[in-house]
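ligand=pyridoxal-5'-phosphate
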Amino acid sequence: MKSRRNFVKKFTAGLTVPILPYKSFNTIENYSLSRSPEQFWKAVRASFPLQKSRVYFNNGTFGPSPYPVLETINEQLKDFNTRGEYGSTKKTRKKIAEYVKVKPEEISLTHNTTEGINIVTWGLDLKKGDEVIISKQEHVGNALPWLNRAKLHGIVLKPFEPGKTAEENLAIIESMITAKTRVIAIPHITCTTGLVLPIKQICSLARNKNIFTAIDGAHGSGTFDLDLKELGCDTYATSCHKWMLGPNGTGFLYIKEEHLDRVQAYWVGGYTDTGWDLYATPPTINGYVPTAHRYDYGSQNAAVYAGVDSAIDFMMNIGQKNIEARVKELASYLQNSLLELDSKVEMLTPTENESRISMTGFRLKNMDYLEFNKYASQNDFRIRVVPESGLNSIRISTHIYNNKEEIDRFVDLVKNT
Ligand SMILES: Cc1ncc(COP(=O)(O)O)c(C=O)c1O
């Protein structure tokens, strides 16, 4: 009983309205990951309201939340609307900072990855002719902001075709650097094939040449046990609504403290400033708050950010290292099973251990990718197709609520093509 109480306390810490534990969620406590892993992961699966009849393999687009997250949002909305308060996001900044091992002052709360990328893209002082290295397999969220600056301000984008190994990718990026390179703006994990780029080595290379690193981390948070200081990037933009399993419309941007004044805040308002005066001549803004809070402003939906707190609690309770290992185990299991179907499958995701993690991309030799999508959907699989970069391929995301039996069923489907 005592441990149950502690458990409830842990998941409700800081909330003004106590939440009741979900029966299904409580079962996690009854299983040991080391003694009975399959039972443990089954209990994790039971913490999600996901339909049992449909196999969800599209976490790379949207990560469904577990019950405690939904409950927290619900309770917080009720609380704010009954007491007439709108809450605070202070706790969320602190919790995110702990989760990715940086300072709360380096975290700006955003609504998605794209917003974080835009803050950096527009905030950097770049001039006509300055070069930005980017991959040819970007999501629109990292492509368009940079393309827009190229269109409006004449910066020059230098796109590269990613390779299959960490060593190759590091060498490609090194070969792209010129005296005019100002920024390397690349994804941690590509949205197309799930390729993991060697960000730590790339950032180290960039640092030595005084090049800014702006990482699109859409698929990094909630997948890796991230230590952003160790990774060494200058900025990292991500979403909480993907692999962190948080509420839709939440994200964060990490900006290294020393760059706060280098990345100019353009969209400003309440909480951005240290004072302003319309009676002065001329009217003035005194300055910006000495934290990354300067980039997010005005009223926020504190209830959904409380949902982010709850998602982080959920992940930490399982253990982010355990999650990383499980996600990799499932994706490797799928990839290895597909690799055995040599006559049917062309694998696009690298097989090198350090260059893959959570998403598997492939083409079918005997079926068009859109036709296969229809076929998979008719068989109750939710997958994603990848028309990006002309790949015309299939992408499967596997997260902690998936299991090997679902993967086996999917592989059987591929065998029928
Ligand atoms: C690599 C990558 N970057 C950016 C985004 C954009 O994310 P959001 O829609 O949360 O802004 C995505 C979305 O899937 C993505 O895969």
